[in-house]
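Project standup — Tuesday

K.O.: blocked on the structure for the chain from last sprint. Re-posting the sequence here as requested.
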Amino acid sequence: MSDPTQPQWYCIHTKPKCEHLAAAALSQFDEVETYCPRLRFQRSTPRGKVWFIEALFPSYFFARFVYAESYRAVRHAHNVIRIVDFGGKTVSIPDQVIADLRVEMLDQEVREIHQGVQVGDTVEVAEGPMRGLKGIVESIANGADRVRVLLEFLGRSNIIEVPASKVLSDRAVRDMMTTR
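H.V.: unblocked you, prediction finished:
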């Protein structure tokens, strides 16, 4: 049983896309420690490749505080919806879980994910005259600098070779976290 007079980690539910704002608001309190792991990655847009930053756990972050002393401040902070509970009972998160998460995030609050491609990945050409076309990586050429992509256009399948930096994988960003 944990000591209720000692700070514990809790999961905080926020308004969508406001995790970092709520965490920043709560970090202003000396008695509250926050941890809001986020991912930085590129995604293809009509303007080409654009960098995005998203929460590792959308609409959630972690806060460490003494529940009895800081409940009201946390619960009523800007952009906070609630402190996560189960059946009306608020449950703390073990320190080891947060420590393991920090290791997975390489001890960074914002971890940059590079979306390298692999043979068999579905990719989208992000720049150049073929921008927006999707295909399957057939092979990696020139030591990972260029890739051969099987695209279907003009009514038939064609293999094109493009710089690896000009394609984006359809693999989920969170799936790439294990690639260091």
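K.O.: great, moving the ticket to review. The two ends are 37 Å apart (CA to CA). Residues 92 and 136 are 44 Å apart (CA to CA).
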